[in-house]
Amino acid sequence: MYSFKNDYSEGAHPNILQKLIETNLIQQNGYGQDEYSIQAKELLWSKLLNPQASIFFLSAGTQSNLIVISSLLRVHEAVISAQTGHIFANETGAIEATGHRVITVDTADGKLSPDSITTVLNGYTLRPHVVKPRIVYISNSTEIGTIYQKEELEELYTFCQQHNLLLYMDGARLGHALTAANNDLTLADIASHTDVFYIGGTKNGALLGEAVVFNKPQLAEDFDYVLKQKGALLAKGRLLGIQFLELFKDDLYFKLATHANSMAQKIASAFSKRGFSFLTESTTNQIFPILPPAAIEKLARRYDFYVWKNIDDNNSAIRIITSWATPEDIVEEFIKEIDGL
Fold it and tell me: How sure is the predictor about 183, in pLDDT bands with cuts at 50, 70 and 90?
């Protein structure tokens, strides 16, 4: 049984494990002041083209979303998200538990636009009786595999600036977005057109870890206090710094994401050739083919995946996710199964 349920079933890329072993007994300062974390930040600054950015290494995506969003919002403020957004659909009410509302927008492709945000803003004008929208939360790639184009992000960021909103990007699968065949964004573009975002390591070769980037350092003025107070400041910060140093050395991060995307698109092509449609047009490592029950049952005998959404009485969308470590021979075997449907 091979699992296509997620892209973090494996441990870490061997380069990371080897570096952890090599540096294991070398003493370092704690709390992210070690030489590896410092070098990793310098490397990221060179990619972002923004040496003024404030970078913090955290352990997980939900942790990053929770701490960043709650630290930026005042007590009466709220965050806008697509209904499929991770902070609304998959984080156990973490944001709401801090006293902040998540205002959702229905969207077929998982993305937000100025028009959809305008609708929200128009519905929250009865001051002081309603919450005040302050943060716009987006994911790239989205939770359903789609990505933002440069023009879309530029328009969204300009709109946010005009309406005194902060734009925050969840980058759990940012590597997969930036290496998608139809992508036209770079890390530097994202640094220029968001207020805060994070670079996901957990889903792309790291044991754990996300790099939170405040493109406007004034937004992160007291973020180190917040990290400590919330229990997110690791004493052995080197564990995170080493991983991002290895991932961004020689562009390993992008090579791993490219492999994951390639494997997913091979599988998508096989489904397309058999005449199956998809829930979304994904070019990343998440695909959502729509299948009848018999086909799902046959594939589930040897492969594990989620049945994502019922489309009608006769069809459901399944979610297939490939990872940086998905073997090509497994993909070829899976494709043979698809060809036999």
Answer: very high
Compute the distance between CA of residue 237 and CA of residue 44 in angstroms, rounded to an integer. 16
Question: Is the distance from CB of 186 to CB of 251 less than 8 angstroms?
Answer: no
- List the structure tokens of 93: 């009410």
> Which residue type does 177 have?
A
- Taking the C-alpha atoms of residue 325 and residue 204, their distance in angstroms, rounded to an integer, is 9
> In this predicted model, what pLDDT tens digit does every residue of 259-279 receive, in sequence order?
999 999 999 999 999 999 999
In this structure, the dihedral spanned by the alpha carbons of residues 214, 217, 221 and 225, taken in order and rounded to 10 degrees, is 30
According to the model, what pLDDT value does residue 55 have? 98
Among left, alpha and beta (phi > 0; psi -120 to 50; other), residue 340 is: alpha
Q: Helix 252-273 vs helix 238-248: angle between axes, to the nearest 10 degrees?
A: 70
Task: Say how far apart CA 91 and CA 98 lie, in whole Å.
Answer: 12
DSSP 202: T
The 8-class DSSP code of residue 39 comes to H
Nearest alpha-carbon partner for 116 in 151, 70, 152: 152
Burial class (CB within 10 angstroms; exposed 0-12, middle 13-18, buried 19+) of 31? middle
Asked whether the beta carbons of 71 and 272 are under 8 A apart, the reply is no
Six-digit token pair at 167?
């734009």
Listed residue (51, 53, 61, 24) closest to 201, CA to CA = 61
* Cα atoms in the Cβ-side hemisphere of radius 13 Å centred on 154: 8
Tokens of 106: 């229905």
CA distance 130 to 84: 23
Those residues with Cβ within 8 angstroms of residue 77's Cβ, 6 or more apart along the chain or in another chain: 100, 131, 132, 133, 134, 135
Compute the distance between CA of residue 239 and CA of residue 326 in angstroms, rounded to an integer: 24
Q: What single-letter DSSP state applies at residue 319?
A: E
Taking only the tens place, the pLDDT of each residue in 216-234 is 999 999 999 999 999 999 9
Please give the average per-residue pLDDT across 49-63, as a whole number.
96
* pLDDT for res 204: 98
